[in-house]
Prior knowledge:
Structural class of chain B: mainly alpha
Largest sheet of chain A: 4 strands, parallel
Number of domains of chain B: 2
Number of strands of chain A: 24
Number of helices of chain B: 16
Helix content of chain A: 25-40%
Order of helices and strands of chain B: HHHHHHHHHHHHHHHH
CATH topology of the domain at 355-416 in chain A: Dna Ligase, domain 1
Low-confidence stretches of chain B: none
Largest interface: A-B, 24 and 23 residues
Radius of gyration of chain B: 20 Å
Mean pLDDT of chain B: 93
Shape of chain B: globular
Low-confidence stretches of chain A: 71-75
Number of strands of chain B: 0
Radius of gyration of chain A: 23 Å
Distance between the termini of chain B: 20 Å
Strand order of the largest sheet of chain A: 8-7-12-13
Structural class of chain A: alpha+beta
Strand content of chain B: under 5%
Number of helices of chain A: 14
Strand content of chain A: 15-25%
Oligomer: heterodimer
Amino acid sequence: MSSSSVLQPPFNDYRVDIAFDEMFTPGLSAREPYAELYHRLLEMKEGELTERQLKADLSFLHQGITFTVYGEDEGTERIFPYDLLPRIISANEWDILERGLKQRIAALNLFIRDIYHDGQVLNDNVVPRDLVYSCKHFRQKMRGINVPRDVYVSVTGTDLIRMPDGSFAVLEDNLRVPSGVSYMLANRSVMKQVFPRLFSAVGVRSIDHYGQTLLTTLRALSPRPEPVIVLLTPGVFNSAYYEHAFLARQMGITLVEGRDLLVHGQVLYMRTTAGMQRVDVIYRRIDDDFIDPLAFRPDSTLGVPGLLNVYRAGNVALANSLGTGIADDKAIYAFVPAIIRYYLGEDAILQNVETYLCSNDHERDHVLENLDRLVVKAVGESGGYGMLIGPQSSAVERAVFRERILSNPRNYIAQPTIALSTAPCYIDGEVDPRHVDLRPYILCSGPHVDDITIVPGGLTRVALKRGSLVVNSSQGGGSKDTWVLQ
Amino acid sequence: MMLSRVADSLYWLSRYLERAEHVARLIDVQIHLMLDLSPESSTQRWGRLLQSLHVPLPLDGQFDAYRMTDLLTFDTRNSNSIVNCVSSARMNARQLREHISSEMWEQVNWLYFHIKDARIDAVWEAQPHEFFVSVKNGIHLFQGITDSTMNYNESYQFIQVGRFLERAASVAQLLDVHYAAFRRHTSAFEGEFVEWIGLLKSCTAFEAYCKVFMADLQPDRIADFLLLNREFPHSIAFSLNRVQGALLSIAEESKSRRARTPNRLAGRLTAMVDYGLVDEVFESGLHGFLADLMRQCELIHDAIYRAYVVYPFDNEFAD
C-alpha cells in the first residue's frame, strides 16, 4: 500500500502509507503549507541539519528544559525529547480547529455547571445519569457551589488527531490539570534560534502572549480587584515541576506549595516574610484528590486544609475548578456531540472518534469479539496508562483485558485503532515519518464562546519510535514545534 | 514579597554550607598539625575538635585519624558531617530553583556529587589535604557565584544572615573549647605554639593575624583578633556586623512589623563586640562572655524565625 520513494536526500526512505501525512500527498509532492520547508531542506548542505540539531540540543540544555523521571535515582532530570522539524498547520485548518474547540469548551463548561446544579441534561436523558454518578471524578461536594463567572475549565489541553482522510478529530478532552504548555513555548523559542530565516519566510503566528493571556484569564476569576494570584504546585518532586516554575515566572506570580497556604476565617492566606498575604486566585496544578485533605483524600499532605470552604464562600477562585473530570471521562466523551447539540443547538464542528461503551451490553459484546482490532482504554486514566492496543497485543494481554472488562464494564471503552497522521521528523541523520497528535491549549475566562481564547499553536506530540502510535512523554514520546500560518 | 518557606530554605542552604566549610577546614588543619604533635596531644586535639563541632566523643576513646576523618566527613549518622551538611544544603537549594541563579544551583549540585561520590579509602590513600581543599574551594566558589550572579535583594540577605550567624557561633564555640584547654600565657611557649597556630588556621586567620601583630603569637591578642577585629571576615565582630546589616536590609524590604525583635537582638550583640575590650573580656571571664554570645546567637535565630517564618496567625491581626 505504500508508495516507493522518489525523494531526494534528506528524505531518502520517506514513505507515505494509509495514515495521512502532514507534509506529503500520497503522490509524494509537498503540501502547500510545507512547500517552503521542503525546498529549504532539499537545499541544505550535507551536515547542516545535524549542525542545527546540535544547536537546538544546546539551547534546550541551557534553558534547563527538563522533566523529572519517576522511579529512578533521586532528582533525575531529563531533557524533554523533541524533534527539529516543525509541524505546520494552514490558516484554514486552524480556523476550523479554533471554532470547533471554542464550541466544545463552551458546551462542556455548561455541561459541568448543569451536572453540579440542576442536572437538566440528566433529566432530559441526554446523558445517562448512572454514567455521571459512577464516574470516579464526580465530586459530590461540588454540588450547588457557584463558581466564579461559571467557568469550570479555565485551561484545557485537548488532544486532537488527524484521521486518514485529513480531517481532525478530538481524541481526549483534558479538563483537569493539562500539562505540556511550557514545551510548546520552549520549542518555539528554540526553533526561532535554529531556523530564523525559514521562520520569517513562512509567516508563523506568534504564541508569545500565552503567559499574558493565561494571567488575564486567571485575573478575570478573582473575587476582588487587584488580585493576588498564585500557582499551586505539588513541589519539586513532581514530574511537571519545571513547567510550574516556568509558568509562574512567565506570569510573574508566586509559585507556592500547600504548606505555604493557610485558611483562616474562610479566607486563604500565604505565609510571607512580610506577614500573611491574602490569596484570591489559585492556578492549581494539583489533582482534585489532593487539594484539600478535609474535603477529599485525608492523607494528602500536598493540599490546603479547608480550601473547599473558602471556595464555597466565594473568597478564592480555582483554575481549573474541582470535579471537571466528569466531562473528560472517556465514557462521557462519547456523549459530547449530543452535549454540544443540547446546550448550543449546533452540530459539533470537530468530530469524535467512534467509541464503544462497555457498560452497554450490545457494545460490550462487539468489543469483546474484536479485541484484536480495537484500542481499549480505562475511562479515568490518562498519559497512555491502562490501555490495550489490540493489533499489537498478545493473546495473554487480551485475555487479561477481557476479564477486566467483564468484571468492571463501566470502567472501559474501546475505539477503533486509528492510524494517527505522520509528520516528517529528523531522526538519526534522516528525515523519516512518525505518528503525531496535536494538543492546543484553550483558555476560557467566561461562560460565552467569545470568552475563549486559543493561542495559535500547540504541542505536537511525536511517537519517536518508528510505527508506534503512543505519543505520551511517559512512554517514549517527544514533541515538536507547531506552526500556525498567518 | 517573599514566601516564608523560601526565606527558611535560603537561610539553611547558606548555614549548612558554612558549616561544611568549617568542618572541612578543621579536619584539614588537624591532619596537618598531627605531623608536629605527639600521639597524646593529637588524641586530645581530636577530642577538642569533636567538642567544638558538638559531635559526641567516641565511647571507646579511640581517636584514630582515619576513623575521625570518616566520622566527620562521610558518616551519615553524624548530623554535622560534611556529606550531611552539603546534602541538606542541596535539598534546600532544590526548593529554591526559582530564587537562586542557575549557576548557584549547579555549583551546590556539583559539590554534592563531588562529596557523595568520594570514598574515605580513596581520600585517605591519596592526599586528604587535596580533598578538603577541594571542598573548601567548592564552597568558596558557591559564595563567589552568589555574590556575582544573584540580585542583592531579600533573598541574598537571608543567605548572608545564615552564613554569618553560623560563622559567629562556630568560631565562638571553637574559642571556648580552645581557651578552656590552654592557659593564657603572655607568649605562647614552644610546646603549645603549634596549638595556637592551629587555632588561627582553623579560622583561616594565621596570615591575617601576622599582618596585624606579626608572628608574635599571644593568646590575648589571638582572642582579640578572632573576637573583636572588625576587618577580618572570620572574626566574630565582623560576622555579627554582617548579620545585623542583613537583618536591617530584610526589615526594610519586607516592611514586616515583627522585624523589631531580631533587629534589637542583633544590634545589642553587635554592640557588645563592637565596643568590647579584650582585657575586660578576660577580666570578667572569656568563657562566660562566649557562652552569653552563643546564647544570644540562638536568640537571634529564634527571633528571625518568629518574625519571618513561623509567626503565629493570631498576632498577625493583633498589632
